[in-house]
Amino acid sequence: MPPQKGAAEMNRVMTKTEITKQKKLLPAIVLAMCCTHLYAASLNSRLQEPQEKQREQSAKQGEHPRALLFEAMTLYKEKQYVESIRKLERSLALNEQDPDVYKLIGLNLVSLGKEDLAGRYFESAVELAPHDFMARYYLALYQLNDKQFERAEASSQAVIKINPKYVDVYLVLGVAQEELGQEAKALQTYQQAINIAEQQPLKTEMPALYLARLLISLQRYEQSLPPLQKVVAINPKSAEALTLIGLVLCRLERYGEAIPSLQEAVGLAPQDKSPHYILMSIYKKQGNTSQAEREMQIFRALEANEKKK
Questions:
Q1: Fewest CB atoms within 10 Å of the CB: 46, 94, 176, 256?
Q2: What pLDDT, on a 0 to 100 scale, did the predictor assign at position 12?
Q3: How far apart are CA 56 and CA 32, in angstroms?
Q4: Which of 283, 220, 288, 286 is nearest to 251 (CA)?
Q5: Percent of the chain having pLDDT more than 70?
Q6: What does the alpha-carbon distance between residue 15 and residue 138 come to, in Å, rounded to a whole number?
Q7: 50 to each of 46, 90, 93, 170, how far by Cα in Å?
Q8: Number of domains in the chain
Q9: How confident is the model at residue 279 (pLDDT cuts 50, 70, 90)?
Q10: Is residue 282 part of a domain?
């Protein structure tokens, strides 16, 4: 079926929804980026502080490296990232061979928006513990976000060799494959993730959502509906899945079925402009001018609010 009039504009509106896959990979690493210039300056100076001085200070205080690590973990969970790094630096001063310390420093740096510094700590963790699949997973995530797609693919494959049942890494691998133009491989990877999640069983909708996103981008709309329905079955409050169902049904000209899904998405995510735009398009095609104008007004108001932030 040829694209309907306005499809290009709908693609533009939905771009934000479709590219969020890189931002939803894993809550443990995809955290709020909140580092101020003051924090950044403090952080850089701390990282450059001579380790000998830190070693002497830690020895005087009778600190134990693992105890410092556990304290740093608590600070990390409390989002006190700079203080967590300070504890970890003191732990490293006493023991430079603990891969867990390097991993946590990397995660803290990501949380502070210092991804450019995080990579070398994940690499160090992998060097110290080559069979630690989480260290390799964090490295793969870093490489993906740094657009090192071939390396991210290789790191993800290494994780799978160590722990083939770790579902999240298949999502990283799939995104890397998409970015490398290997859509057929990515489709297989996401299906693998779905199968593994069902075998465990894990209550996660993400593999099916990733599969559906890719199918939609390939304009394979009918094929995208079953994974989208699976997402909603697992997570009925997934506004993104409901919006994508509405988009797909719109593309298939099944307008009567699309409207309830989009209205439900609006109720779950009232600040999301995308379902309003699709509803506007549907009402316009149906000749419902007043409803189409209402949805366009809401869409423009939400878009204006986004620009203010």
A1: 256
A2: 37
A3: 34
A4: 220
A5: 80
A6: 26
A7: 9, 11, 9, 40
A8: 2
A9: very high
A10: yes
CATH number for the domain including 270? 1.25.40.10
**Backbone φ and ψ of 190, nearest 5°:** -65, -35
Helix (H) or strand (E) holding 100: helix 99-111
Cα separation, 224 vs 187, in Å, equals 11
pLDDT tops 90 at residue 49: no
Residue bearing tokens 């700590």: 121
Query: Which residues span the domain enclosing 90?
Result: 34-112
Q: What is the pLDDT of residues 7-22, one digit of tens each?
A: 333 333 343 333 333 3
CA separation for the pair 205, 213 (Å, rounded): 12
* Secondary structure class of 208 (helix, strand, coil): helix
DSSP tag of 78: T
This prediction's pTM? 0.79
Q: Are residues 88 and 17 in the same domain?
A: no
pLDDT over 80 at 250, yes or no: yes
Q: How far is CA 5 from CA 12, 15, 70, 253, 276, in A?
A: 13, 17, 58, 12, 17
- Cα 133 from chain centroid (whole Å): 19
Task: Count CB neighbours of 61 within 10 A.
Answer: 9
Name the helix (H) or strand (E) containing 215: helix 206-217
Q: What are φ and ψ of residue 205, in 5° steps?
A: -95, -5
Question: Is the backbone peptide bond immediately before 236 cis, with ω within 30 degrees of 0?
Answer: no
Q: What backbone torsions phi and psi does residue 3 show, to the nearest 5 degrees?
A: -60, 140
- Assess if residue 7 is contained within a domain: yes
Specify the residue for token string 């479709």.
18
State pLDDT tens for residues 20-41.
333 334 333 333 232 323 333 3
For residue range 165-190, list pLDDT tens digits in order. 999 999 999 999 999 999 999 999 99
